[in-house]
Amino acid sequence: MNIEKSPEKESPSWLPALVTIGIVLMGASWAVLGYFKYGFWVNNGPGGGFFPVLAGVGAAVLGTYELLFSPVRARAVGTKSLWPAAAMGITVASIPLVGMVLAMALFIVLWILVIERKAWYKAVLTGVGAGVAIYLVFALWLKVPFPQGFFLEMMQ
User: Fold this and answer.
1) HSE-up (13 A, CA, CB side) for residue 129
2) Rounded to an integer, what distance in angstroms lies between the CA atom of residue 30 and that of residue 52?
């Protein structure tokens, strides 16, 4: 496979490398947390940490490959291109306060409102539906231990 470089002028930027290093570190932390906190293999079957370990190792390995061997160098991006990373960062940072399911549902609602610019009722219906689906599939049926968040823990 021959990858052609863009005829536009490439600008050296530290941002792509920084993002890739962040992906490697986040993947490694997912793998470690999944393995030691949630258990990779429990009672002769996959535990709650099985998928985080696989996804984390995959992200760390692919990020390392990207950082060391990628023939394509990214061009500098505008600030609007950083919105998805900022949104995910805010979502992850809010998990200790509101819990995993609510944080993901709020992320979806705000994404649809702000980025997609859809009607508020579509955003709310989609966010609530996604939150319910995430809860039913992972927390209730698969018994994946999600972080509850400070507010939910205080109410119990």
Assistant:
1) 6
2) 6
Count of residues in the chain: 156
The count of other CB atoms within 10 Å of the CB of residue 107 is: 19
36-88 pLDDT, tens digit per residue, is 988 888 888 888 888 889 999 999 999 999 888 876 666 666 777 778 888 88
Q: How far apart are CA 156 and CA 136, in angstroms?
A: 20
Q: What angle do CA 77, 13, 107 make, to 5 degrees?
A: 45
Average pLDDT of the segment spanning 11-40: 83
Pairing of strands 41-42, 45-46: antiparallel
Q: Please tell me what DSSP assigns to residue 72.
A: -
What is the spatial distance between Cα 30 and Cα 48, in angstroms, rounded to a whole number? 12
- Strand locations in 6-145 (E): 41-42, 45-46
pTM of the model: 0.56
Q: What percent of the chain has pLDDT over 90?
A: 35
Q: What is the largest CA-CA distance in the chain?
A: 59
Residue type, position 141, single letter: W
Cβ 106 vs Cβ 115: under 8 Å:
no
